[in-house]
Structure formats: structure tokens, C-alpha cells
Amino acid sequence: MHDGLTSSPQAYVEPGAADTGTSGPALRALVDKTLADGFAWLRFPAPLEGRFLADTAASRLRTLLIAGTLVGLVLNLFLISDQAMLPDVFGQAVLWRTWVLTPVCLAGAWMMSRLPFPWLRELLAVSAGVLASLVHVYLASISQSPHSAAYMTGLTMVILYNNVFVRCRFWLAVPSTLAVLLIYLASLWLVQNHSLQLSVSIGLVLFATALFTLYNLYTLEQEERHNYLMTLRQRLLKQELTHANQELERVARYDGLTQAANRRHFDEFLSHLWDRAKSTQGHALSIIMIDVDHFKAYNDHYGHPAGDACLVQVADAVQRCLRRPGDLVARYGG
Length: 334
Known about the structure:
mainly alpha
């Protein structure tokens, strides 16, 4: 048996050799199981939930920053309603909305990008709406205006802000929405000029707004999570396919015994270097061919397993002598 090993320098990069960061079939199996089982409680298994929150953190942060910045403007637009319905406490309204709530909201928007946990950002965003509700009820409670009870309809804007504009996570929207409804119930004792007809009417509007927006939030988040799983599944399948193709490419280009490049890879590699050497003046190209002396006699005497082990040791010895990343060891014979 004749066998040869060839060493050749120069860099050569195979197509598709970059690391794809595959996550493995285990994660894809978990994605498939989650899609099959469903997620009625809007919660994934822990590994998927953490990945979902991390992958959506950037887009959620943009939404929260926009909402946190614009809420300062919206709160000051309420001054128009304050002047029309609660003229006797308009000075207090300016103080609370312009000089308290607006700076707090802007400071909260500034803090969001610095908070380490996504749920803290969501909590900070909905807290602005709850705080605005408290200020709303406070202004109505200190006013003597005959419109102070009707002024409570403004709480619907808070629910719409949290559940439609901010689109906070459903399980955070539920308690924040209940907090606004409880604040309205408290206003029945704190605000003057309430009548049964007006209170029931405003209460029904608030309850319907809460119910419809929460249902919308639930369906939107469920759809978002489903789309995320489908996208993640497609990405994992693509990574697995890329990994399989890379493995096939490796098998096609490298000798299974010595793990050195095979004849096909060597021929392509040499052709690449030869073309580059011809086009570059003064470019040096070196090839060393090594023949294992008396290999046939060794193989016949000690057997094929010993001969294979000999070739592996020779290939390892030559590989250790390489000095540059672009150098190549190839099994030319065999």
C-alpha cells in the first residue's frame, strides 16, 4: 500500500465555514411541544420564556420609550379638560400635570433603558397610568365643580393608554386595569355630585373599555407568542440544515481516518493557490510531499489496524509542524 501526505501553506476559507450558533434539536423539540400543547396562560416553559423576553426586549423597549415620552404631552393635553370641567382647581392641575407627572414620566422613560429586567420596564410604564389616575381623582375630589363626577370618564383614557398604546403584557395589564377600576370606585366616595345614573353609566363605560382592551391584549400577545415560536422554529431548522450541510462538506473534503484534507480538497486548494500565485508577482508557493517508507511491509506484517494507527500518527506529526493558519495537510494517496 502506498500512501502520501502533502503540506501546503497559504490561507483558504471554505464557503459556509462560519459559526452559525446552532442551538441544537433539543430546543426545537421544546418549541414543537409548546406549539402542540398551546400556551393559554401566555407563558412558555422557562428556557423559551427567557429567550422570548430577551429576543423581544429591544422592540418592547422602543415602544415603552415612545409611550413614556409621549405620555408627558398627553397628560398636559388633559389641561384643556381640566379648564373646561374643573376651572376652580386649574392651578392645581397645572402643578400636578406639568410640574409633577410630566417630569416623573420623562424620568421614567430615561430610566427604562437602564433597567436590567424587562418586567421592571413594563411595570414602570403602567405605573405612570395608575399615577395619572390617582391625580385625576384627586383633582376631582378637591373641586366644587358640578362636572366633577362626569370628569371621571377621563379614566377610560388611562385604560386605553396602558392596554392599547403601551400594549403592556397581559398579566401586568390585568392588575393595572383593576387598579384603575378600584380608583374609580373610590371616587364614588371622594368626588361630589355623583348620581346613581351617572355613576352606573361611567362605570359601565370603564368596565366595557377594560374588558374589550384586555381581550384584545390577550389575543395580540397570544398571536405574538405564536408568531415568535414559528419564527424561532424556522430559524432553528435553518441552523440545523446549515450544520448538516457543513458536516457533509467536511466529510466530502476530509479523510475519515487521518482527518487531513482529502485528494479532492487538496486539488481545489492547490488550484486556488496556483491561480493566486500566477496573478501576484513574487508570490511564493511551497508544497512538500511525504511518502511513508516501507508502509506496505509494515501494514502486511502488523495488520491494517496498526497501519491505520501509523497513518494517524504521521498525519498528527505533520499537522503539529504547521506554523500558519492557512497551511494545509492533505492525504494524497489511499
